[in-house]
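Fig. S4 source data, part A: sequence.
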Amino acid sequence: MRLFVALDIPDDVRTTLAALAAKLRAVSPKARWARIEGLHVTLKFIGEASQEKAQAIKSALVSLPARNTFAMNFGSLGFFPNERRPRVLWAGVAACPELAALAADVETALAALDLPRDDPAASAFRPGGGKGRVPHPSRLLRRACPESDRRVGPADQTAKAPPFQKPEGWGTRKPGLSESQNSLAFSPHLTLARFDSPRGLDALHAAIEKAGPLEFGAATAREFHLYQSVLKPGGAEYTRLATFPFAGRTSE
């Protein structure tokens, strides 16, 4: 079975993103658009695992320390790696440092089961190339985490609007990785579309510019989940295998 660990997003955020995606899909039909109902804030992609390994994963996740709830704000769009030849269109996620700490705890717990750690140098997503009427990332962050005094700065100085980027120092430093690798360790986002070629991007850029304020809603994270992903002709189908409330109890 193919597994991953993730946070859910609320229905109102999905509804807002679905309405926006429908407008953008009309001008960029060649892109491979994600199913909005399948969007999650991914903490760790595990990949293929046996039934026995899945049980061990559940046991490892339920043993994570209890933690406080935290807020997340969803807003802005951008392209990865850049807006000229993108591979991905993303929606941003701003949250307190607790989100990165949770991802780091999941990573550490599963590494004890000989599951490979994510390689930031090879696979990390670094948002860049923000587009449209983008709320500045520091504003989104302060909504999610009012006590935060961390600054958020653009990664791409040529972008037309400030790109969404995590605060300086956001994320857990991992031993054995360089400073640049650690800076890429965790960048929460929602993948809306993937591109095989840059054809039709001008129309998509124009549609994003006309889309209005790119603020999609907020959520309070109280639990995370272990999901199974089954690839089907119509897209991936997700089944929730277990839920892990921050208080420390699990449900299946």
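Fig. S4 source data, part B ends here. Residues 104 and 172 are 6 Å apart (CA to CA).
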